[in-house]
Design a protein that fits this description.
Blueprint: H1 2-5, H2 9-13, H3 24-45, H4 55-78, H5 84-104, H6 108-150, E1 154-156, E2 159-161, H7 168-175
Antiparallel strand pairs: 1-2
Helix pairs in contact: 3-4, 4-5, 5-6
Length: 176
């Protein structure tokens, strides 16, 4: 149990105030902001004809989804929401998929080199960061759970309810 309570480096650096460093939310939001013009550039420059139907829509639509995932994760991290665990996992997965398909669908040495560099220096490190955040948040929740339960906290309608606050179910019982 003592090992579980030992603060991780990120938690120690924040002096107990944050599980995820505060620079992450603006960084992810910045990535989302950069991704939207990049998507517009893709729509404008991708070849009209390729060996796939709806090529521009497939890539552009995927990048729009990735941008929304990045922005949502940034918002959840900024709000210190436990839902950041879910959005970070989704974002990390989309980043892995983006790197995979960018590299595998590239043609020519120049395109493959550009895709591999983008994967190595942008997409894969961001994915690793997202998975680290998700794991860190999940671990914090699991460590805190027994202490919260011992203190009398309960979860009602997916919300943490303090011990002295009435719940909807107890209000319903007392009303009948």
């Amino acid at each position: 149990m003592a090992a579980e309570l030992r603060a991780r480096a990120g938690f120690r650096l924040g002096r107990g105030r944050w599980l995820v460093p505060p620079w992450i939310a603006p960084a992810l939001l910045g990535c989302a902001i950069v991704l939207f013009p990049w998507t517009a550039l893709l729509f404008a420059t991708l070849p009209r004809h390729y060996a796939a139907n709806h090529w521009k829509v497939a890539w552009g639509g995927f990048d729009i989804g990735l941008g929304l995932a990045l922005a949502t994760t940034a918002l959840m991290v900024a709000r210190r929401s436990p839902l950041a665990e879910v959005t970070a996992t989704i974002t990390g997965t989309l980043l892995l998929c983006d790197a995979w398909f960018d590299v595998l669908t590239s043609r020519g040495v120049s395109d493959v080199t550009q895709a591999a560099a983008s994967a190595s220096f942008i997409e894969l490190p961001l994915a690793a960061l997202c998975f680290w955040m998700a794991r860190n948040i999940a671990h914090a929740v699991e460590v805190a759970r027994p202490f919260l339960q011992a203190a009398g906290f309960t979860i009602v309608d997916n919300k943490l309810v303090p011990p002295d606050e009435p719940t909807k179910s107890s209000e319903l019982r007392s009303a009948s």
